[in-house]
Amino acid sequence: MEYPNHTFCRYLNLPKVPEDLIREVIDSYPTTKEMAEVSKFKKSFKTTPSGEEYPSYAWSDQNNKKINEWCQKNICEDMYFAFHMIQSDENGYFDIHRDYPVRQKLVYLIDPGGGTPITTFYDEDRQTVLQSISIETHRWHVMDVSAWHDVTGLEPGTVRFAIASRLFPGG
Ligand SMILES: [Fe+2]
Asked: Rounded to the nearest whole angstrom, what is the distance from the C-alpha of residue 87 to the centroid of ligand 1?
């Protein structure tokens, strides 16, 4: 077992989310056409006080109610778990960003339905690669989202679902 000095992703051996529950939530999501509207929302970046842009992930309280209930019962009772939709662009790319103001997230990726996604973390210059990893699906992990990161190798235009929770909102 290798223990890196610093990594931007650490796996946790927490219970897997039941497949039937995930399927039920995904099936309740909008059609592909409606998803295009969701994509516009995703691309509507917000700006921090220092002028830095950060993305708005699309998610829905109504649709993720059951997921949140299951996660609060089985993972952590005082965190809020959102069911995210992340749509890649026509090149299978998800733009470089930081998840401002959140520094760490607890994440559970669901099969993206194709492609070989690679998440890359960058230095402050947004160019120097610090770590490039293929994050396992259906496995809880903590991600350091305070660093610049992007995702390549997604199937163009497909929607990647993930369950995500802010470990320490706002800091
Ligand atoms: Fe992110």
From this structure: 12
